[in-house]
Amino acid sequence: MHRGYDADGSSTVEASSSYRGLMEGDADLATPARLMGEPARAAMLAALLDGRALPAGELAAIAHVSAATASAHLARLVDGGLVRVRPLGRHRYYELAGSEVADAIESLQRLAPRRPVSSYAQSATARRLAEARSCYDHLAGRLALGIADRLVAERSIAPLEAGETGAVLATDGPLAQRLRLVDLPAAGRRPVVRGCLDWTERRPHLAGALGAHVLEVLLAEGTVARVPGDRSLRVSDEARAAFGG
Question: N or C: which end of the chain has fewer CB atoms below 10 A?
Answer without folding.
Answer: N
